[in-house]
Amino acid sequence: xxxxxxxxxxxxAKVIFRRPLPGTNIVPLLPDGRIAFIRRRDTGKWGLxxxxxxxxxxxxxxxxxxxxEETGLELVKVRRLVGVYSAxxxxxxxxxxxxxxxxxxxxxxxxxxRDEILEVKAFSRDEIPFGNLCxxxxxxxRDYFTGETVVD
Length: 152
Hints:
Elements: H1 2-17, E1 21-29, E2 35-40, E3 46-47, E4 50-52, H2 59-71, E5 74-85, E6 96-106, E7 117-123, H3 137-146, E8 150-151
Parallel strand pairs: 1-6, 5-8
Antiparallel strand pairs: 1-4, 2-3, 2-7, 5-6
């Protein structure tokens, strides 16, 4: 029953939206070299902060807003484009195109969006819980650490 409902909702969404939704994920690099992660309320898994681009926003302004909402951190500088991810199954909720950027961030952790986020925590590269990250964030982080720009 749930599978049929989901299939129906996906069909309706295709008719209504007809296009994938654009969003951004952020690799927030802290001054000490660690990366800030959020733990999602819906899955309990860790992931990179990010979200959909609102009407009138740029990728940089979306990254700034989402970083502040989800982590309390301030975006200091967008450092580089890591990749663009568009696989239909990259996010189980909806077809979205994700633009992954690395940013310099500073400040204190404060979850402002408690409906979506349980907590914020910084991990060093060796501490990242690979294999237990949400959506396609394992892949995004592997690509990030290779230093290449990926278009998928």
